[in-house]
Design a protein that fits this description.
By secondary structure, this protein is of the alpha+beta class. The protein is about 45% helix and about 10% strand. The radius of gyration is 23 Å and the shape is globular.
C-alpha cells in the first residue's frame, strides 16, 4: 500500500487536474482530426490509454473525470477499478491500465465491489468520434452484437468482420464479443441487484444464451455467484415491480440541467413525451418491445425509472437514455476550450457543463425537424401531435399520460401529404425523407457514417443547412455541428458582439471546434425561451408541460 502524505496527495491532485484537461482536450482534438494525441504508453493491452504517469496521478488523486477513459488493474489483488475508486491507491509498480472493462476482464481481473467500475460513465470518445471504432462501440452498446452477431455488426458498418475485430482489438484490447459480454455482465448485475426477477429470467433478459454461461460470467467478472450478488443488496431495499426498474445514471461533473431538460420539455410531443412531477418522460421503441422512461435530474446522478415490455431491451434502453442526455460527455474538456474565447468564457463560468439534448430515435427526430421548419416550437408540437394520433402505435403508460410511440417510417410510408396542414414544399420534403428512411437508403441510427449521412440529407429536397445541422447535432450526435443560420444563435451572436452573418459566424466558430454543438447550447442559453428553463415540479391535469 502507498503511504502518501496529505501534501503529496494534494500535489498529485493538482497535477492530475492540470494534466487531465490537456489530455482530454488533446484526445478530443485528435478524434476530430485537429491534432495528434498526447504520449501513450502500452499498459496491459495492445490498445492505447493515457500515458502511464497521467494514469497514476489520476488514480492517486481519485480523479473522477477519468472514469470510463481507462480502468486500473492491480496485479497483487487481481481486481480492476475505476480511477476514482475510494480505496487506498496501490503502488504504481502494481498498476496496469486498460482502455475498456472488457480488456481488463480478458486479462483475468475481477470488477471491484467497492467502486463498481462497470457502472462508470462511458468513454466520451464513442459519442465524439465518427470513425469505425466509435461507430462500432455505439452499435455494440445498442445491442447489435447480441441480436445479429459480429457479422451483423460488420454489415452495419460496411466492413469485414475481420477488419472490425482487428480495429477493436488494436484500440480497446478486446473484440466485439468480449465487449458485448462485458455489457451483458453489467446488465445482469443490474437485474440481480435491483429486481426480484428469477435468475433464469435474468440470464436470458441480460442476453446470455444459457444459464451456465450466465453463472460462469457473473462469477468470473464479480467473483460472486448470482445469488451471492443479490444477497449483498442492503436489506429493506425495495425490489422493482413487474416490468419496472429504478436505477441511477452517472455522469461527469459538472452538469447544468436547465437547457437539457428545458429543451426536451419545451419541445415535447404530447402523447410521446411529457414533463411530470419533476421528470422528463417519454415512450421508447426498442428492438424487442416498447418502453417508457422517466428521467429526473439529481445533484450527482440522473434518476431513471424504466417500464419495459421485454427485459431483453434493458441495456439498449439505458444506452439510449444516456445518449439522449449526453451523459458520457467530458464537460471539462469542452468548457476548457470554449472558455478560451473571451465572449463565451462568462457564459461557461455562469453555468458550466451544459449538455447537448440528443434523441433516442434518429428517424423520429428527422421527421420532427422537417415538421418544425420555419415555424414556432408550439406549432411544431401541434403538427407532430397530429401525426402521432393518426399514425402512432398506442401504448399503455402505468405512471402517467403517455399514449403512443412516435410513428416509424414504415407507418408513415402511406401518409397522404395532402392531409398535412403545411405548405406543399414542406409536404414534398417530408415525403422524400420518409421514402429515404423507409427504404433504408438513409441511415440515422447510432452507427451511421456522419459524412455520408450529411451528404444524403443535403441532397434531399427542402433540406437546407439548418435542418442538416440540427439533425447532425441531435440525431447523429456530432459534437461539432453548428447552426449558424439558426435565429436564436444569430440573436445571441448579435447581443454578444459576435459576427451575425452565417458565413462570418462560421469563420469565428472555427476556434470552438470540435465542440461547436456545445457552443450552440451556451449561445441559446442567453435567450428568453422555455428551452433554457428547467420546468417546475408541477403538471397540469394532463401531465404535460406548458408550451
Amino acid at each position: 500500500m502507498d503511504t502518501d502524505t496529505d501534501t503529496d496527495r494534494d500535489t498529485d491532485r493538482a497535477t492530475a487536474t492540470a494534466t487531465a484537461g490537456a489530455a482530454v482536450a488533446a484526445a478530443g482534438r485528435a478524434a476530430s482530426g485537429n491534432a495528434a494525441g498526447g504520449p501513450v504508453r502500452d499498459s496491459g493491452s495492445a490498445a492505447a490509454v493515457p500515458d502511464f504517469d497521467t494514469c497514476v496521478r489520476a488514480v492517486r488523486s481519485k480523479d473522477a473525470r477519468f472514469d470510463g477513459w481507462f480502468y486500473t488493474a492491480v496485479r497483487t489483488t487481481g481486481i480492476y477499478c475505476r480511477p476514482s475508486c475510494p480505496v487506498v491507491p496501490p503502488k504504481a509498480e502494481n498498476m496496469t491500465f486498460h482502455p475498456s472493462a472488457a480488456a481488463a476482464q480478458q486479462a483475468g481481473f475481477r470488477a471491484c465491489k467497492r467502486c463498481r467500475p462497470d457502472a462508470s460513465p462511458g468513454s466520451p470518445q464513442w459519442n465524439e468520434r465518427a470513425d469505425l471504432v466509435a461507430r462500432a462501440m455505439r452499435l455494440i452498446a445498442d445491442g447489435v452484437v447480441d441480436r445479429d452477431g459480429v457479422p451483423g455488426l460488420a454489415a452495419r458498418l460496411g466492413y469485414s468482420a475481420r477488419q472490425v475485430e482487428r480495429q477493436l482489438l488494436a484500440e480497446l484490447g478486446a473484440g466485439p464479443l468480449a465487449l458485448a459480454r462485458a455489457q451483458r455482465a453489467q446488465t445482469a448485475r443490474l437485474l440481480i441487484e435491483t429486481s426480484a426477477m428469477p435468475m433464469g429470467e435474468v440470464a436470458f433478459a441480460a442476453g446470455f444464451a444459457s444459464i451456465r454461461a450466465f453463472n460462469d460470467t457473473v462469477r468470473e467478472v464479480f467473483a460472486l455467484s448470482p445469488s451471492e450478488l443479490r444477497a449483498r443488496v442492503a436489506k429493506g431495499r425495495p425490489a422493482a415491480g413487474t416490468g419496472t426498474l429504478s436505477l441511477r445514471l452517472p455522469f461527469r461533473r459538472p452538469l447544468t440541467p436547465d437547457n437539457l431538460f428545458g429543451h426536451l420539455a419545451a419541445t415535447a410531443v404530447p402523447g410521446v413525451e411529457e414533463w411530470r412531477a419533476g421528470a422528463y418522460r417519454r415512450t421508447l421503441r426498442l428492438p424487442h418491445g416498447t418502453g417508457i422512461v422517466a428521467l429526473r435530474p439529481q445533484p450527482d446522478h440522473i434518476a431513471c425509472q424504466l417500464w419495459l415490455t421485454d427485459w431483453r431491451d434493458l441495456a439498449q434502453a439505458i444506452s439510449r437514455c444516456r445518449r439522449l442526455l449526453d451523459l458520457d460527455a467530458d464537460p471539462q474538456a469542452v468548457d476548457a476550450l470554449l472558455s478560451a474565447d473571451p465572449v463565451l468564457a462568462p457564459l461557461v463560468a455562469k453555468a458550466p457543463g451544459r449538455r447537448v439534448p440528443r434523441v433516442t430515435d434518429g428517424p423520429e427526430f428527422a421527421v420532427r425537424a422537417v415538421l418544425g421548419q420555419q415555424i414556432s416550437t408550439a406549432a411544431a408540437r401541434t403538427h407532430a401531435a397530429r401525426l402521432v394520433l393518426a399514425h402512432g402505435e398506442p401504448v399503455t403508460d402505468p405512471g402517467g399520460g403517455l399514449t403512443h410511440l412516435f410513428p416509424a417510417p414504415a407507418a408513415l410510408a402511406g401518409l397522404d401529404p395532402a392531409a398535412l396542414a403545411m405548405p406543399q414544399t414542406r409536404r414534398n420534403t417530408l415525403a422524400a425523407l420518409v421514402r429515404a428512411l423507409e427504404s433504408g437508403e438513409l441511415d440515422l441510427d447510432v452507427g451511421s457514417d456522419w459524412v455520408r449521412t450529411r451528404a444524403q440529407l443535403s441532397a434531399l429536397p427542402g433540406f437546407g443547412p439548418w435542418t442538416v445541422e440540427t439533425i447532425a447535432m441531435r440525431a447523429l450526435g456530432d459534437p461539432d455541428a453548428f447552426l449558424a443560420t439558426d435565429l436564436g444563435v444569430r440573436y445571441a451572436a448579435r447581443d454578444l458582439g459576435l459576427p451575425t452573418t452565417p458565413a462570418a459566424l462560421v469563420r469565428h466558430s472555427a476556434a470552438w471546434s470540435p465542440w461547436r454543438a456545445y457552443a450552440t447550447q451556451y449561445l441559446w442559453a442567453t435567450g428568453d425561451h422555455p428551452i433554457n428553463v428547467l420546468p417546475p415540479n408541477t403538471t397540469d391535469e394532463k401531465g404535460t408541460s406548458p408550451s
